[in-house]
Write a structure and sequence with these properties.
The protein is α/β, with parallel strands linked by helices. It has a single domain, classed as 3-Layer(aba) Sandwich (Rossmann fold). Helices cover 41% and strands 14% of the residues. It contains seven helices and six strands, in the order ααβαββαβααβαβ. It has a six-stranded parallel sheet.
Amino acid sequence: MRAGLGYGGSCFPKDIKALEHAARSRQVEPHLLKAVQTINATQLDVCFQKLNEQLAPLTDKKIAVLGISFKPNTDDTRFSPAEALIRRLSENGCTVAAYDPKATLSEPLTRVTQVQSVHEAIQGADGLVIATDWDEFRTLDWGQVKAAMNGTLVFDGRNCLDRHAVEQSGLRYMGVGRP
């Protein structure tokens, strides 16, 4: 586990609930497991707030979100923090261009378009969010990214990027749990 938007998928949330139930059935209060669930539930709020502080007001901003699945190398979006962030951005007036190599959005969302390439997602974007740590996102040409975007913010929601490479291109890097 590492800092990021939070965990998702179908297994980990279910497993934590099962462990919590097992602990309680043995009269043990699962404080740590409850804390894990609380932190995961609030992590998206923390990340959203960081974006809001950097791009305020969010209304009418175009945000490119790279990654929809809950983890790389899958098309699974069950309990995906990426999809939850996309929904939250949309609800707050952002236009979102979302791209994922395998996954599709589980439902249509207002002001959200799923696009077919990274380039299409970042074109004219005011901000870029790495929401799933796919290998292809780690190796982007940051000079080309900067040229395609209107804004300069790259929010690394998985702490998977080379901060120096991003900043060297003239973009502003922001990670999770980092200054």
